[in-house]
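Two records follow; treat each independently.
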Amino acid sequence: MAEPQRIEKREITDELRESYLDYAMSVIVGRALPDVRDGLKPVHRRILWAMWDTGLTWSSKLRKSANVVGEVLGRYHPHGDVAVYDALVRMAQPFSLRYPLIHGQGNFGSVDGDSAAAMRYTEAKLSKIAEELLQDINKETVNWIPNYDGTRVEPSVLPAKLPNLLVNGSVCIAVGMATNIPPHNLGEVIEATKHLIDHPKATSEDLLQYVQGPDFPTGGVMYDKKAITEAYLTGRGAITTRALAEIVERKGGSGRDQFDIVITEIPYQVNKAELIIKIAELVQEKRIEGIRDVRDESDREGLRIVIELKTDAAPQKILNQLWQHTDLQKDFHLNMVALVDGLKPQVLSLKDVIFYYIEHRKEVVRRRAEFDLKVAKDREHILEGLAKALSVIDKIIATIKKSADKDEAHTNLMKSFKLSDLQATAILEMRLQALAALERQKIEDELKEKRKLIKDLEALLSSPQRILSTIKDELTGLTSFADERKTKLHSGGLKEFQEEDLVPQEEVVITLSQNGYIKRVPPKTFKSQKRGGKGLIGSDVGEEDFLAYFVSADTHDDILFFTDHGRVFKSKVYNIPVGSRTSKGKAVHNFLNIPVQENISAIITYAAKSINPSSYLVMVTSLGMIKKTKLQDFANIRANGLIALGLRKGDLLKWVKLSDGKQEIMIGTKFGQSIRFKESQARPMGRTAAGVRGITLHKDDTVISFDLVDTSYKSNLLLAVMDNGYAKTTPLTQYKVQNRGGKGIKTAEVTKKTGSLVALTVLTDEEELLSISTKGQILRTSLGSIRKTGRAAQGVRIMRLNPGDKIAGVICL
């Protein structure tokens, strides 16, 4: 009769919790995490053991990888053949392991992410250094466990003369935990281990005097010694690595400097092919500009990626952008989790890893010595019996001859000569050649040697210090495999990229229309033309808009936007959208919180380093008021702006200039009047002040221009431009210095033909003039072609305008 079913009632949450934990620990211990002692996961250990057990060592011939995979699957690892082959392939890849444990022949993949050829095509055997993991395994140095079906046994851990966990690292994801241990330089790890043997109280920080940090097989440069130290002290942390990149000059026929960025090493675990594709995508999307071509020139000699730059590109800025947007700069997130005692997953510091390795080697050396001692004593026992027999060989022979058979002879020898079972057997199996004098001497010499070895092994086992010395000597023997460090260490940290680190520093022209459309373009966009030309179309501003402001700046400059209501807003020049020569631009309100009822009346650009106590902003209003305020008062401007000037009713802020406080002021009016006075006559005031009078205006006249006179230039000219396209230059010496607040003197003959005065600009070493009309025509011409005349002259035509068009502004370059 069948036994009744036994059913136990349990809370499902308890059952699920326990079952999941059992499953998780099974995966963690049985498949995922490396053992701190030999640095191997079970699948790697089984592959190496199977190859060793079948004689596939360094000195043997290569064998098909499929043969190895089949051996591992059939005897030790009853999982997928793909998982086993992938593990075998990784141990053969010089770009994955710092010191490959398998010597492969055939296609074992590449740093481009190419997969290995099928296992039937590739061949493998143990590398020479891998044998150091398995040496002495047959001397009972490690514990053995049954395989999956109980038909044979496998090692639970390898003897591991090689400190493999640190040397080759390990990467895995378990259930609820992961490990990410980088590879290290063998020579450094050996020295650190020897130091900890000699100084057991040494800290991880002490050991970092020897282990500089990871040593990746793909090289590269790692940064920030402080962050590296913290990671090794705690077992967790991010280590920043960069590709080894060099900016090299390229020979070109243009006569200008041309550069390439050449990359010869990349960060660990970066796919080279995907990296190149990413760079190409960034160029295509215009997120990085200035790259002409990207070429992969890698060959069997080494890795080489060439990034060819355009002639006008800024190499360091482009390299900064590549650091920021690609895996040329990558963080390795160190997470040193490993199994301790083969069962317990722990986060380990550098000292912990080396400590557990030393403890393992102490156990291996002790068990090996015990095994060798047992073998030596067994051999000594046999040799003592043989030596005793040879001393009475005639009696031995007589005893054997009198015996009826082999068993009786064996018994008689034990009784007559007080021999052990093993000794009697050895004597019966002894050949007659051993009776020769030389053979007898060999037995005696071997006996002495064995007794000496026994004494030495017993001394070793009784001395923990000698065991440690043996470990050190064996580690020293591994230095033949050590090589130079591949990953270089940069002790300094990497500052976080600011946006300006990614933007090329170059001269640009900023245009702003009356309706608030802004853009920046390179000055070379406008080619030089002869005086009197019609100019190029400079901006598609529309019929009811015109370009009002036209300034030169550097992309890294700060830019201040002043409104006619006396408020100021701040941005970076590189934040201004890039446009083409004919594009309309973007609305300035898209990135500045300017009230709708306010219009931008002045733009100031300056380098942030220019802010000092002697820098001033000089402001002039349409009704002739002037105010001087320290630039440093505008260092911190809120997103919704600051008050820059207190205005009187009906007045508007129109011009702002940057000054050192030692200049002279030149103000011009629509009707052709101008005044020149010393800047010192306008004392510095606070941000909210209204200022003082700069010029007294005639009825219906307004200020149209304001400029500063640099008195260090003795041959200054004053450029006057009229809105119908006429201009002239006049020596500044014809303008006397007056007192602030006067009506000034005549500076141009304003007629219906010339139109009103639209610009009055002091010239120093400028060479070219950019004139822009209200309908968007732009003319670039040489200032030298504009005739010098007296103060009251009309000037010459510099630009032919279409009907209804007028000059809106000028800029000198």
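The next record belongs to a different protein.
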Amino acid sequence: MPSALLNAAATISIGNAEIPLLGAGNIWVEDSLADDLSIKLTQAIIESALAHTAPGQLEIIVYDEGLSGLASPFWPLNSAGEKILNIITDPQDFKATLRYLRDHILGVKNVMQGLAPNLVNFRHNVDYPVEGYKLVVVSADYSMLDDETQTYLSVLMKSGPVAGVSFLIHSMTLGANPFIVNTCELLTPRQGLIERADDHPIFGWQPPMAEQLIATATHTAEQLATAAVDSIAFTEVQGTDRMWGESSADGVTFAIGKYGLQTVEVTLGDELNQRHNMLVTGAVGQGKSNLVSVIIHSLCQRYSPSEVQFYLLDFKEGITLQAFSNAETGSFLPHARVIGLEADREFGLSVLRNLFGIYKERMKLYKAAGVQNLRQYRQAHPDVEMPRIVVIIDEFQMMFSERDRITDEIADLLVKAVRLFRACGIHIILASQTIGGNMALMGSTADGLFGQVPIRVALKNSLSESHATLGFKNDAAAHLRSREAIVNGDYGDVSANKKTSIAYADDQILHRLRDQWWQKARDHVIPPYVFVGEKRLGTAEVMAALRAAPQHQEWQLMLGSQIEVDANPLRVPFSRDVGRNVAIIGTGDAVPVIENMMAALGVQRPGTKFVVIDYLEGQPQWDATRHAMAAVLGNLGCEIQIVPPAHATNVLVELAQLIGMRAASDPDIVVVGLGLDRFRSMPMEFQDLIKNGPPAGIHFVCWWLKLDSFRDQVGYGGESAFDIRLALRLDSQSAKSLMGNPLLEWRPADNRMLAWDMAELPEAVRVIPYSVFAPDAVLQ
């Protein structure tokens, strides 16, 4: 058996004696007040308990009413990151701890289910870490404790040892209830010996030095820091010999761990108990990502992609979901429809909108079939494929990080989703490190959200987060160890707590399972759409979008990738109508964005002439690609003319003279202006060109750093000549003004662009710009 599973010895060693304690009894150390021997003996008992227990298997709770400092030498115990020493000095806090211990003892006995006489024996029969031991040290004048505290102690000291909770009382017996004293082994320290109530004194006892106690505590912490975490294998809770044998018609069930000898399973879609959605919380490093992985793999092993479909979103680093998308090998989780790595709020909103579209489609089918929900529909149409959808949103609270229209819409849709989606077989699992803070941004809608989430799984967390997850009277999550969880299927009601040891998602095992799933399903499923919020898009995506699009008679200008499921490109017509010019404003790098526009236009219309007014000459972001851009356009059969600043005025004057002379069949001319803020003497012909050029086939795609520079150069009324407006790292106020929307919510960010076509779009939209220019991708 692994070392951390070793059971604590039922006895501890003091001098030449073995005394029952952990899992076996209690000890009372008589405090004579004449010297500090009683404190030394109490410390020696604590030290021996640590020495007889594997690292991490014993928690020490000390109530030091008189501030004796008896626990001070043991402070190093908490240096390993696991809090195994808890010192209490406030009487009310001690009462709260006793209330917790009452529930804990009851929970342990529920786990044992009478299968063993005590926790020590039960642990001998179980091959995974189940329930630890607790040593409760009470240093106080017992007779002066209030009646409520004494009542708690009288019950717990009798029932606790069987459940692994033993008490070490450091107090005078004078005035104490003799029946309580009789539940303990009574020890009275003397010089060189310890008197016992059974008249069998312990000889040869020497009080430990403080240095010895500190060394023991430090050594225990070092062992705990380096000890391997013993765990429950995934295969112990989820069989791997039978794949895809379950139907989701009546719900989906997955395994997550062990409660005593029982495998803990959770069912979503339980119509009888109305359990359709789930909340998972846990502090950093307590196993939330592991739990999410266990849930996904258990479901995928039991149900085929035609029975269960996933929408997976991660609003932080995306590490939890990376294993389900391997772009290098082309293998994916076949059950996944959407995988959002490093998702952002706009994409989360898009996913919710997409799911509501599915909800409406399914409800129309149910209405036409005369049924009310997915279960009834599957019964009436057993041959129809309609998988249940499980939506997992990790760090979902990040969707509410700002109070704005996006937050309000997400909150509204999410509350409606947990209430309405159950009928059509869409279930939501919300996971978070914390829900006590950012949830305030949701206002009263938080109650509406969690009121529809009966299944709560709380990993180790703070007291406040335990209350936020399980309810104000349920602090069980604050007393867990790493990779333990409270599984509660009744909205956090204390009586429904199950302290569960979560299985370990060993990727060596799970990777093989994912390969099996993918190999079996690869010819029958469409790979999921994978959204990576920070991934920069470029020429390859532009060309792929052009090849996939139907052929159009008029140009299609590619503005960026929409932040939505399937990431459709935002494309607008680039006809010869008035106003078909493009203005790009902002301090972001517009050069690759413009280059991708030029490449896309050149692919669609060979023979186009590009006139580049180059005020970026000498700047590396343009000089590095200008020759490659010219070569690409030349290979497409287009003409490109690079105009240095000294000749810019003459070229514009010449173009203005062509307006009345051009025929409809003449190739279009696209004037590209780079860094036009530096064009200090813009000729008046420019204002005529931007207004009257498009009908003559002369279009402008121009970039200014500042909105004021743009307005100065286009003149009064000239702004309306630019239907297509793009903002790249443009400040919020300027963006509102450019887009003509004082209520616009926009914060400049890397790899994001605000796009609006006055003639085609009702309002500005956020897109991921095509900000990487790859010449080779154009001609593939």
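Discussion point: Confidence is low (pLDDT under 50) at residues 1-7. How would you locate this feature using only the token line?
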